[in-house]
Amino acid sequence: MAQRRVLKYAILGLLSKQDMSGYDITSEFKKAIGQFWSAKHSQIYLELKKLLTEDSISQYIEISGVKLERKMYTLTSKGKEDLKSWLLAFEDHVQTEKDVFALRLYFLKDIPLEEIPSLFENQLRLRNEKLAFLNDQYAVYFGEENNPIDLNKEELGHFLVLTKAIAREENYIDWLTTSLEIVKQNGRK
Amino acid sequence: MAQRRVLKYAILGLLSKQDMSGYDITSEFKKAIGQFWSAKHSQIYLELKKLLTEDSISQYIEISGVKLERKMYTLTSKGKEDLKSWLLAFEDHVQTEKDVFALRLYFLKDIPLEEIPSLFENQLRLRNEKLAFLNDQYAVYFGEENNPIDLNKEELGHFLVLTKAIAREENYIDWLTTSLEIVKQNGRK
DNA sequence: AAGCACATGTAACAGGTTACATGATTTC
DNA sequence: GAAATCATGTAACCTGTTACATGTGCTT
């Protein structure tokens, strides 16, 4: 069974930290958590509407400035229950982590040899940019703090996710570097 | 821009190795390439129909046994062109690699401390099972061959994708192991 | 003859992206 | 006053999953 309604639980999880508007939720998906899940504002507003009718969240209005309305959302007790049971569920299998670059490399034989290095170099550039961004984030939030044992539970979730993202990118870059060498040597043979 | 019609190109790529039926394509997604892209048979048959009307592939019938029809598909010259230009395209950004376990960990503060180790252990079990499967595959295809420089171009694609999948799982397992220790120590403080 | 793998298809629904549409507030 | 950001929403379309539906061929 595929994992269903992940966006629902991502939103409930964000709201369990603090009340937010649809716009705030959209912004969160551009930060740390966006490394592992994201959605566009159009989808988020629809999901919020659905969560309201399901009584998992409730809404109130805040005014910014003179008349700009921010629709703020809060978890209901049902929403808290929904979130908690989702967080405690055991996964029975890992889903395919889709990766278009790896897919393309599988079809390597149809790529002219001279085109391959620039494909790798482009990917390396993108991955290095992402890694630099993640390292910046790490420095901002955990720069001085070199012992995660001192973090509170909320910070710890952020820490684990950031270190996961960093490890993932470093591992990707290592594989790209090694593979590029192999392909170059293979081509010279 | 999100990457569009990836399934189309995955199918064209598979057909560039040899003619296949919809069933064969479905089977391929259960092997190495399924680590990076997959689809259900229902979606594959629809996509094949679409590719036929677009003249990217053509169809012929093979009979197995007495009357079981296998609809075989071949790349047309248009299909080969489509595939080639997709393989040479530069990606302008890396997409979010969705990962539900990491998402759940971000919401760690809402998980009771005593439940956390079993969540990690479940994930470790799943990841270790996957790694064992991948290592088996590696042994089957590249067991004796310890020098990828001797591989031909078709085998090289397979090699790179398999080593990528193995590296990904090893990296995941390392992070899980380290993180579980951190969470345990953090909880004792 | 039972069970499993081979083989193809459709329908309903769920999830996600792009484009369209509008207006307020802040910053320079 | 222009531009960027804040803020919310809908419509059309594309992608992907689950369930339904049917039949053949091989192995034991």
UniProtKB/TrEMBL annotation, chains A, B:
InterPro entries: Tscrpt_reg_PadR_C, Tscrpt_reg_PadR_N, WH-like_DNA-bd_sf, WH_DNA-bd_sf. SUPFAM superfamilies: Winged helix' DNA-binding domain. Residues 98-182 form the Transcription regulator PadR C-terminal domain. Residues 11-84 form the Transcription regulator PadR N-terminal domain. This is PadR family transcriptional regulator. It comes from Paraliobacillus ryukyuensis.
